[in-house]
Amino acid sequence: MDEQEMAVAPGNDAAPPDLVAFVDSSAIVAMVDANDNTHGAAVSAYAELLQQGYKLFTTNHVIAETVDLLDAGVGPDVARRWLRDHRLSIYHADEQDERRARALVISSRNPRGLSYVDAVSLVVMEKFGVADAFAVDPHFLNETA
Predict the structure, then answer these.
(1) What is the pTM of this model?
(2) Under 8 Å CB-to-CB from 57, ≥6 apart: which residues?
(3) By the 8 A CB rule, do 27 and 135 touch?
(4) Contact 29, 36 (CB under 8 A)
(5) Which of 19, 89, 111, 126 has the fewest CB atoms found within 10 Å of its own CB?
(6) What is the mean pLDDT of each run of 10 residues along the chain (145 residues)?
């Protein structure tokens, strides 16, 4: 496993430190796509998180979603370049995480519904006690509030 894909898990040296934020695909897409209406805010927020010493991590599900969104929005070359160059720590959701995420999706009372990727993200944030999320998607932010 290379540095980009180090596991973030309890008892692992890569476990989230005190200042940790979960990164949603919405923030990544906003930073990469200069035409996104939240691009400037996302870039500024990212710089601020790094300046404050936050450790940023995401899940393998968000990585997959991000590549798909970038591919559809700004093209496959940009998506592949981001996939090659990003420096996020990646937590690989396990079977228990996925079972809990399925239950969240099935029981969601949100009229818009809860995406499976967002459900996995919420489960992982709860698992590690992470309260901060770097996202520009208001639906995801409402779920984490």
Answers:
(1) 0.85
(2) 8, 16, 20, 21, 22, 23, 88, 89, 90, 91
(3) yes
(4) yes
(5) 111
(6) 33 58 98 97 96 96 98 98 96 98 91 89 97 91 82
Q: Which two tokens stand for residue 120?
A: 């996995």
- CA dist 104 and 114 (Å) reads 8
Task: Measure the CA–CA gap between 53 and 64, rounded to whole angstroms.
Answer: 26
Please state the length of the chain.
145
Sign for the CA dihedral angle at 17, 20, 22, 28 comes to negative
Place of tokens 């934020």: 21
3-93+129-136 fold: Rossmann fold (3.40.50)
* Angle separating helix axes 116-128 and 95-107, nearest 10 degrees: 120
Kindly report the CA angle at 38 between 35 and 42, in degrees rounded to 5?
Answer: 110
Positions of E strands within the chain = 20-23, 55-59, 89-91, 132-134
**DSSP-assigned letter for residue 36:** S
Sequence-separated (6 or more) residues with CB below 8 Å from residue 74: 32, 33, 35
Q: How is residue 53 annotated by DSSP?
A: T
